[in-house]
Amino acid sequence: MELVASARLRRAQERIEAMRPYADRMLELMSGTARASSSVRGLPLLQRRENVRSVAIVPVTGDRGLAGAFNAQVLRRAVALHRELQGQGLQTHWLAVGRKGISTLRFSRFDLAGQWGGFSDNPHYDDAQTVAHRLTELYVGEEVDRVVVVYNAFVSALTQRVTVQDVLPIDASMLETDTEEREHDTLVGDFIFEPEPEQILERLLPVYLETEIYRAMLESAASEQGARMTAMRNATKAAGELIDSLTLAMNRARQAEITQEILEVVAGADALTA
After folding, report:
1. Which fold has domain 2-231?
2. CA distances in angstroms from 216 to 61, 84, 96, 97, 147, listed in the order given
């Protein structure tokens, strides 16, 4: 399992690296389009509601165990966030990604407004689209006023950092760039937009949300394989130490038994000669 996890980890890292240029280009395109419009803040996914009453929590876990504290630390942080929000008088909605998260939340009697599983090892963009569409539906329908994703960000095979990220509403400040950045932006110049910039950005924002969800899934997949690789290495080491300990105990017991038998034979021989 350690070797399998190691191979899958390399593939997961390659997918994360391959996605980064796409994500950077997406932000660049959105920023350039936003500069051509003066009314982008009216778009639904950018609207930040002053009176936040309900928050959606989306923990991203794995479909399987045997990965150390990988799943537990995400769920522990998500439940702590749930209690924190309840202490502020806010209502929470749960949407779970990963079978381990689904089963744990169900066991804890939390109602799930959405659940997806079966792809934690190898998530695809279609999976991220499905999750993003449901989150968009809840946010635009004003069933929730904020969406938070909790997942393990990949640092290294030995380190996974629990990350709490607000994905909705989308931060409008990322669409703003200063003068120096504009001079180096490849989208600087006079452009004719067809359709209007607001309509283009309205289509780009959901894609950006899908990209963020997909990135979180890829980070979680890499973290899961890293955690499983480390857990299996530790398990192999512990099993080896246990085998050595039990072998030593068995040899000592066998030696003591042989010694006892020899003493009994010697004692019997001495009794006959006496």
Report:
1. Pyruvate Kinase; Chain: A, domain 1 (3.40.1380)
2. 11, 23, 13, 11, 14
